[in-house]
Design brief:
CATH class of the largest domain: Mainly Beta
Number of strands: 11
CATH architecture of the largest domain: Sandwich
Number of domains: 2
Helix content: 10-25%
Bound molecules: copper (II) ion
Shape: globular
Number of helices: 4
Strand content: 35-45%
Largest sheet: 6 strands, mixed
Length: about 160
Amino acid sequence: MAWEIGAVRWKVALALAAVLVAGCHGAAAPHAPASASEWHGNGAMGAADWSKQLDVTITIRDYGYLPRELRLRAGQPYRLTLVNYGSVPHYFVAPEFLASVATRKVEVREQAEIKAPVFTSFELRPRGGSLDVYLVPLRPGTYRAYCHVKDHLAMGVEGRIVVE
Ligand SMILES: [Cu+2]
């Protein structure tokens, strides 16, 4: 009797474990890297010399991103600061760009650091809301970034990031 209850418990535990494993895979983001080494850009993160970090900024206004085009070099570590000087919240939506870089962390100064393999977008509060993305571009290309709030894209709240 005791053995039977034990066996049932085992079956329940195994079924639960299977559900948990399936759940983890199902929850993976479309661009999520398969492994930690991929997360770190196949060594790009470990090889990056952060003492050579360059600081670049994209300023967001109600009429657009400044600069309209930001040029970056593949393999170079950057601190990309996003700051919204507009009067309303704005987004920085750039899933292709953010999936093409190795991200060390995202930092809200004096507040928090967020660690994740891949980001897709950020929302910045008006009148000075900002954050820093520590990243190493990996794939040359031209990437789009824009705000998807209402008619903001039509108002010009967008930009281009060129990785050479
Ligand atoms: Cu906007």
